[in-house]
Amino acid sequence: MFGTSGIRAVVDNWLIQLALKVGLAVGQLHGSVIVGCDTRTSSGAMKQAVTAGLLAAGARSFDAGVLPTPTLAMATTEFDAGVMITASHNPPEYNGIKLLNPDGSAFSPNQQHQIEEMVLNDSLATSSWDRWQSPGAYHDAIDHHIKSILASFPGEFKLRVALDCGGGAASVITPRLLEKMGCEVLALNCTPNGFFPRPAEPTEANLADLMKVTTESGADVGIAHDGDADRLMAVDDRGRFIPGDKLLVLLAREMGARQVVTTLDASMAIDEAGFIVTRTGVGDNHVSEELKRGGDFGGEPSGSWIFPKNSLCPDGIYAAAQLVSLASRYKLSRLVDSLPAYPMLRGNVAADGMAMPELEHRLAACMKPVSTSRMDGIRLSMDGGWLLIRASGTEPKIRITAEAKTEALAHQYYENGVRLIKESSSQPREVR
């Protein structure tokens, strides 16, 4: 049921029924639960199904409305658990469920397993009718999140900011926050739209309009969110997309971080930036779990940034304020250009029937790695770089990442990975 970031699937009869069952399971374990959703067309129906399950289980359920995941996570501190209806950066025909603890972290693997067992074993008894209550409303989550962030960033930030919320949940908070910080906001796709006017994932390929607006308007920074605003990616004052690996270093330095937690697919340049670096499997939930054991800042190059002093939920809204603060003191383009970068290639192969032991054997014979990690998929470390091959936790794809000291070597690693995946799979198809 659970991938690297909750439950996600194309919306259909099965997913709606699953939402009801998850609500029943969560309601049996937690007495008070806050529920929110993103802007997808299916989010209202999904939220009602989860709420019905919570109430039938005898729990008290409170509706926070349409809001970002980190905003709901902050409100969850007042409840036993939070349920966010979202498929994050997946296309609009998808939806899903994220389950949150009061500290903002996603449900742990043990908590997820408990929910799965209850759902799959159909051990979902309703409470007696006399314990059922009407759902409540929680209206203050967005205002509380804005107030909390403003307390960390006093003063006026007279910047011009191009902002692309992608029609997602950030539309209801990030424009307001930046205006309250004193910014002139050039809004792009900042009206809630469940069909998403651009693809929800804030990748360079999906942000051409933001880069154009940033350049033509002379904005100091461009900011983009995904569907539920747990992610943030950015464009510098020259209209260039800032790679996530460089953004990780910039935000960590801005936080004054000493210990940084990041994922296996982050650049080796992170290790050269002077931080004490801990690596985890890919997925913000793994970073969040590791931060419980220590660390000043965490994130992954896809745009999830975690500020553990505030919450263990990735917070694209707080990251926006942090980036504005940084841009108010320095030209982002100069900071970006001052950071080292190594050639990195990322891609996907749609493949069924992956034989991982066979693939690892082929990779080792071909690439002769110095070391191999199986923390999350297969990561080969070579003298000149590394290759990571892993199954996506959110889509039916095999993800490939290669980084090396030279362009030629990065392409060699990547192309070898694609070729060997195809040789070890049935019906493979490369997807850039």
Describe this structure in words.
Helix 1 (13-29) packs parallel to helix 2 (43-56) and helix 12 runs antiparallel to helix 13 (407-423). The two termini are 26 Å apart. The strands form 4 sheets. Strands 1-5-4-2-3-6 form a 6-stranded mixed beta sheet, sandwiched between helices. A 6-stranded antiparallel beta sheet has the order 16-17-18-19-15-20, covered by helices on one side. A 4-stranded mixed beta sheet has the order 8-7-9-10, sandwiched between helices. The protein has 13 helices and 20 strands. It folds into 3 domains: 7-141, Alpha-D-Glucose-1,6-Bisphosphate, subunit A, domain 3 (Alpha-D-Glucose-1,6-Bisphosphate, Chain A, domain 3); 152-338, Alpha-D-Glucose-1,6-Bisphosphate, subunit A, domain 3 (Alpha-D-Glucose-1,6-Bisphosphate, Chain A, domain 3); 344-431, TATA-Binding Protein (2-Layer Sandwich), CATH 3.30.310.50. It is of the alpha/beta class and 432 residues long. Helix content is 34%, strand content 24%.
* Helix count, DSSP H or I runs of 4 or more residues: 13
The count of β-strands is 20
Strand order in space, largest sheet: 1-5-4-2-3-6
Stretches where pLDDT is under 50 for at least 5 consecutive residues are none
Q: β content, as a range? A: 15-25%
What is the makeup of the main sheet?
6 strands, mixed
- Characterize the overall form: globular
Distance linking N and C termini: 26 Å
Task: Assign the CATH topology of the largest domain.
Answer: Alpha-D-Glucose-1,6-Bisphosphate, Chain A, domain 3
**Rounded mean pLDDT score:** 94
Computed structural class: alpha/beta
Name the CATH superfamily assignment of the largest domain: Alpha-D-Glucose-1,6-Bisphosphate, subunit A, domain 3
User: What would you say the CATH architecture of the largest domain is?
Assistant: 3-Layer(aba) Sandwich
